[in-house]
Amino acid sequence: MTAYRIIRWLVFIVISSIGILSIIFLNNYHGTIEKVLKGIPQLYNFDLNTNSKNFNVNGTLFWIIMGIFLTGFFYILFFLSFIIDVIKANKKLMSLNFINLIFMLIFGIVIVYLNYKVMLFFGQFIDNQDINGNTEYNYDTYNFITLLINCFTGFYVVSMFLFIINILPYKKQLKFWLAITFRWNTASVNVNNIENTNNKNNKINKKLRINNYINKTNLEKVTTNFNRLIWSNEFNNEIILDTEEVEALIDKYKTYSDFKSLTTFTFRNKFSMNIADENFQIQLYPSFLKEIDRSFYHINLISKYSRRIFMAAYYKFAYYVAFALEHSLNIVYARITTQILTFDNLDTKILKLTSENLNNFVLKLYNVVRSFEASNFKDYQNSYTYFDIGKVFYNELTNQIAKIFEYSYNEIIRIQDEMYTGEYNDDVLKHKNDKVKTAFDYFGLAYNSTYEEFKSRYREIIKKTHPDSVRINSESLIKLTTMININKEILEEYFQTI
């Protein structure tokens, strides 16, 4: 349910409540001639000198009539709002909005017209007075008062029903109308895609100009274990995008659901970053910031178009940085079990480099887009280049990250290699020439323990020493996990032979 439809529904409730209360009070001036005569001075003042009448703005009946008129008038305005819905709707949704459109128009016109006739009804008691103050009038008070009350009550009930249906998602609305018109077998046809159909129809031509494909195999090796995605310029020729097309670019780069390693790492570690003295929570380590659209740089841009350009360029930069780190993590995690980002505070070092680089990039981007605005969008034919301002900053940042990433990886390998050489025999082997007994002792198991007992104990230790669960000295953690793996391999080999 959109905010627009919720607000419209709340306004409808308020206006309709005013109308139905007015109808209830109108009954006090209807039904008998005495009630009608009581209501006349509550609606009109009569000037004997000029023999004319005017509205009594202090009278109760006047405000009752105005309440009903206000309701009818607003129903006509609701009709105009549904015209917008009909224009935006595709063929399947047009019939839904057309029902509401016609109903609101008829309701508004009928109520305003009957309200006008009721005013004439009371006024004619004064207009038909003779010189002695007597009146000749058919006192059939059923007339337009009863008709107005009955029509308004009926319209009110139907409109409440329609508006309750209208606040439902479009696909449920369609399914409901198909069901109550006994078209059961068509009620489920294409219903799941009904809300997306309109956007697809409206953007079909624009999608031809927006390439949603990202070639994730177009990689280059920065260091032995750090690869990055080669930055691909968004457009090679002059192109002028409208706001919806820029929105499509934002959607292209703001999704990072495939970055499993970074998603898990970010979830377990809360990070933040300062941009122009404003602190932002990191949504995905290290480059996706939460609520970046509330930053000074974004808010200080005047037009929506400029802001969308800013966001599209930012998300492209953030995506490329995150992709490079995610891909490189997957490379090293195929070889090591240590969480490399927590080794020797590598995560903090990467975050510091990213913060410095991102601040420079965002400042450059803001200045370019702000100048674009200040020139009254004079250089619009080159605005397509703004989406790739981050290319230089991206290459510089990934070069810096690659160096410290490679160093950390090499240190982890060095420590592990030392553990697999003489240190095991010299410092760990308790039972001379019996690695199996030493391994059983390491896991706290008896020599006659079963394979199932060993696996259960191994899983228990792994949970306690998982690199994402503890944050001890990096070298100590590597030695600990390496010793676990060495003894595990010994017992795995032992149980295969018995």
Automatic annotation (TrEMBL):
Q: Under which name does UniProt file this protein? A: J domain-containing protein
Q: Mind telling me which InterPro entries this protein's record contains? A: DnaJ_domain (IPR001623), J_dom_sf (IPR036869)
Asked whether the keyword Repeat is assigned, the reply is no
- Any idea which UniProt keywords this protein has? Membrane, Transmembrane, Transmembrane helix
UniProt superkingdom: Bacteria
Q: Report the transmembrane regions from the record.
A: 7-26, 61-84, 96-116, 144-168, 317-336
